[in-house]
Give the backbone structure.
Amino acid sequence: MIKNSLLLSLTLITAGLMIWGCGKGKTSLTLAGSTAFQPFAETLADQYMSSHPDIAITVQGGGSAVGIQSANSGAAQIGMADLVVLPEEAKALTATIVAKDGIAVVVNPQNKVVNLSTDQVRDIFNGKITNWEEVGGNNVPITVVSREAGSGTRSSFEQIVGNINLKRDALIQDSNGTIRETVANDANSIGYLSHGLINEKIKALKVDNQECTTESIIAGNYKIVRPIYLLVKGSLQGEIKNFIDYILSDEGQKTIKADGLLPAK
Amino acid sequence: MKLIGEKGVKRILMLTAFSAISALLLIALFILSEGLPFIFNYGLTEFLFSSDWQPHLGKFGIYPMIVASLWVTLGAMIVGAPLGVAGALFLSEYVPKSVMNLIKPTIELLAAIPSVVYGFIGVMVLAPIIRENFGGPGLSLLSASIILGIMILPTVISISIDSILAVPQSYREGSYALGATTWQTIHMVIIKASKSGIIASIILGMGRAIGETMAVIMVAGNSVNIPHSPLDSVRTLTANIALEMSYATGLHRQALFATGVILFVVIIILNSIASVAIRKRMVKR
Amino acid sequence: MRIHPRYTQRGAVAVLGGATVLTLMILIFIIVFILEKGLPVINLKFLTSNPEDMGRAGGIFPTLIGTILLPVLAIIIATPLGIFTSVYLSEYTKENKATRIIRFGTDCLAGIPSIIFGLFGYIFFVITLGLGWSILSGGLTLAVMILPTIIRTSEEAIRAVPKSYREVSFSLGATSWQTVKKVILPNALPGIVTGIMLSVGRSIGETAAVIFTAGSSLRIPESLFDSTRTMAVHFYILAREGISAENAYGTAATLIIAVLMVNLSAYWLMNRFIAKRS
């Protein structure tokens, strides 16, 4: 008796799932890639969807390399990449700059240090400077936190600071947000992340006596800056074009500015 | 209901069985077909023993990750095996059966807690303690070992208890009749009799430890580094796959599949040892 | 130096008992830690409303849907396949080299780290088959992951049915299938169901394989091709990126309670069947 009703309900569930699942629903758009741009993409997607209910936009993370790869493979319609220079694999894609972003060098708020020179930053990440004392802090070893190899933030950071051969025992985390959390929890750590993701849990250092602020970046004083690209396979058309146009519009750029990124122009 | 008939049923079952087994086979073959050619072309020794993991330069040495996985598993065993076996012995021999019947399922339920929760507690509770009291970044080999050791406790305890309870009561009665205390009975009779089962439980725990990904990514630090002390940050084979798989292409991707093949082989070896141990237990009785 | 057995006995009680207490304390601490911070967050609104601001505020309703859909899909695919396969292997074939190899193979596959299935699922379902980050990719990957376990536990349960049952059935003139349907399956059901429930529990807590195949979309999925986020993934993201500690704990608490409920029902079902049979 029980078995029969169980079997019946299971069949009904399966049938229901198939009927529901096989309809493709609204047009759907998937973005994937840069974890620096991801929160902004999500907010922009929410805003866009509230005025365009017929389209469903999904945002995945994974890092800039995932953005390039998924745009190429079709797993995503739009790839997000925050790189100074787009690599070989991205050459075939249509690239649109939608924002600019500074990379802040961050430490724990308890850290005395306020400013580092670019050379010092380079030496710390290369492992030449290993104690905070050497740069004006307390006598504690420096814990370096970095991103995985496929991160646009990491590639840009290493490219702009230059000559970085990351020390072997640097901690590796897999997104901007996790670096922020790690630095927030460890008083002796140093990391880097998108300027748009700074909050009160961490402290952004001055680099070469330049603060990482919107004004300083626009003025060209803060040097660690990179553009954020949206990559599309083929030409921009249809829903993809509409969404990208929205991001480039006044409303979209306003949202970008409001949360700490710089506008595209 | 002779709708299909006996022969028909047999055919359906055979078809399903073949499909299921072929599906599993295909997956194994897929992984092998991506990983093995890489190993042969790149060179097994170079792959296993080089410390140079720089995919963008075409260097795929996974030695630091192998060392890390081995140490993390060993550490988990050091933490989990004594605690687990001791707990299993206590629960089976010293504690009344009713209490044990309450505690054992509770411990087994704890095996069901998702690994991300363990990892989170490792990050929020364990890593700061290690950082403040022992130095280092806190996210380290030590934290990973401790968290994994805790994670395998339910497995070790549960299977060890099963094994200990399987020791014939006559063994115990004989020992008590000779005037032995419970502890003497345990270390002279019971442990010897349930040894294979206990070893099997530890090996299965090791299998789980080596395969763990999320908790390790959260607490081990993920540096591609051969650890010189338990306080160093390390990256296991599983963490390596997880961190890089979403963007790896070409040779890099194949290298990750090859890492999967290595893990495959290790699990097969562990499983074989465990099944030999279990078979020995069966034979003995 | 011989210590009097009385003292080694006391020593043993202290050491072994201490170890047991330590183990229990650790495991209880973990549950209490999460529930203490997470239970206050859980209320009907939390469970039924959508997340706002990418999870900083609001509820976790879409993740509940994802957490239900993915394991359900996996079970629907893997259970019939698994049970039929184990029935066929144990009842319709003779014990020979082939069956031994298959058994060994499924044993090994059952022990493969889930990240490898995630890697396979990502490359095969998401990219090669073009399913993208979707419930389909995630469900198929999970199905493949739990299939070996279901085959294995079902087979053990079936083999545990005493030979005499089969012999009696055959002697009464029943066919193989009738024997399976009326004698073997009902008796093996507790073991089979336990295996299924444990696999469900495992799928609910699975993160690595799911993140790379089902993605992490916070919208309520509308088709099998939509990406979805499970509670385990949601907790991972909230906790790791420091988006909302409060919601992270709430999600974790919900997750733990869900998993515990699934496992408890497994035990309850099993005990009920055993009671009915004996």
